[in-house]
Structures are given as C-alpha cells and as structure tokens.
Write a structure and sequence with these properties.
Length: 251
C-alpha cells in the first residue's frame, strides 16, 4: 500500500549555512520519527552536507531537484544521477514546471532523465500540472493525461513502482492561490485512474500522489484529507522549519 510523503523543494534559495540551520531544525522538530516519509530537496551544493544531518534509516530522506539524462561525460555544469546517489540522495524531482518552462524540458527529455535516475537507484518524484490557460479552456484532464502518457508511462511495471507522482497546477505554484481540496482530489483521482489503465489497479493503489502549489501550514490538513492526496511537494513553506513540520504533521 502507498505511503504518505511530504517533500520540501527548496528551489534556488538559501545559503549553505542557512540550509544546514534549516535541516537541523527540521530534524529536531521531527525527532519523534512518526508520520509520513519526508524528503528534503536542497540545491546541489548543499546535498552532501544536508544529508549528513539526516539520521540514518529514519523517515527523513535526501532528494535532488534535477539530474542530467546521461551517466557521465563532457557536460559542463551538469550533475548525473549516480553522483546524486553517491552523496546519499534517495529521491530526485523530475519534470517540475519551472524546469519545463525555463529550461525547455520536454516529455522526451524527461523520459531519458527518468531512466537515468532509475538506473542510478533514485526514486523519481515526477511532476505534472496544467497552466491557467489550459484550466480555463477546460483541457486540464487531456493535458495531464498527455503528460503522463508521453513522459511517464513508457516505464516498465518495476520501474514505475519506484515513482511518486506530484500534481502541481502551475497557476498555484508560488502564487498563494492553492487549488481547492476538491480541485486537487479530482485531478489526483484522474491520475490514479490513468495509472490503473497504463499499468493495473494495484499499481494505481500503490502510487503515492502528491499535491504541490501554495500548500502551507494552514491548508495542508484539508488537502491531505482527500482520499487520493497522499502528501505534498512544498516550495515556499518548506523553507521554514516550523511550517514544514506543521505540514508533515497534517495527516
Ligand atoms: P510553492 O511551490 O509551494 O512555493 O507553491 C511548490 C513547488 O513548486 O514544488
């Protein structure tokens, strides 16, 4: 059966020292070790240091925000999936809308990145989500169905079992405009249905589906109470240990 999970996407924020202070506080506030799986996703240069602060074998895990699709080579400035694994990363966010929008990441490229991440033993957190135009044109389900089919459903059953899906409506990211719990539930149920079609009913039941987009300490409980919302991918509110902890404790 699927696990609840809360992931903090720090994006391009904080200094190394601030990042260490943040993770120390997150570890302190979550020392009880009960509740959902938690993933912190700091920027690349912080990964090893932040990872050292996380207790081994507990519920707190390390994740990266991106990886390159190739295993190694002459790709100046890029970071390979196995490098991430070698510093203790267990997860990697792929297909975030900011990567798709600002860095031109396509479904085809994301397919390659997924393969690279899985080959390195990382668990991908694969993001999908529609723009405001798409929602207003009433094309949300078509759009997300297409993102799943083109980007994700080429994986084998075994590969897909490693994947967490994140539904992140672009219009809700960093805008303070959260999807209502009903809007989130509707799309999450749709995603689960698509997984059942592409794989099988058990795979659909076993897949963790996160909501992301202005989730915070105030609205997390309502969002997580929905039957198909298994946790959150948290941006802004993951930069404050107390807020992030409230979200973690919102199940
Ligand atoms: P937000 O970001 O919580 O700041 O809206 C979510 C995300 O982009 O993962």
């Amino acid at each position: 059966m699927r696990q609840n999970l809360v992931a903090g996407n720090w994006k391009m924020n904080l200094t190394y020292q601030e990042g260490l202070a943040l993770v120390e506080e997150i570890v302190r506030l979550n020392a009880a070790g009960t509740g959902p799986e938690v993933v912190v996703c700091p920027p690349f240069p912080f990964l090893a240091g932040v990872g050292e602060k996380l207790p081994q074998g507990g519920k707190l895990h390390l994740g990266a925000q991106n990886c390159h699709q190739k295993e190694s080579g002459a790709f100046t400035g890029e970071v390979a999936a196995k490098m991430l694994a070698s510093v203790g990363c267990e997860y990697v966010i792929l297909g975030h809308s900011e990567r798709r929008q600002y860095f031109g990441e396509t479904d085809e490229l994301l397919s390659q990145k997924l393969k690279a991440a899985l080959a390195a033993g990382l668990k991908p957190i694969f993001c999908v989500g529609e723009s405001l135009d798409t929602r207003e044109a009433d094309e949300t389900f078509d759009f997300i169905g297409q993102q799943l089919a083109a980007g994700l459903f080429h994986l084998s059953n075994e590969e897909f079992a490693q994947v967490t899906v994140a539904y992140e409506p672009i219009w809700a990211i960093g805008t303070g405009r959260t999807a209502t719990s009903a809007q989130a539930q509707e799309v999450h149920a749709f995603i689960r249905e698509q997984i059942a079609r592409a794989y099988d009913a058990q795979a659909a039941l076993d897949t963790t589906i996160l909501y992301g987009g202005s989730a915070n300490a105030q609205n997390a409980r309502e969002l997580f109470s929905q039957p198909d919302v298994d946790g959150g991918l948290i941006g802004g509110a993951s930069l404050k240990a107390a807020d992030f902890t409230t979200i973690i404790q919102s199940f």
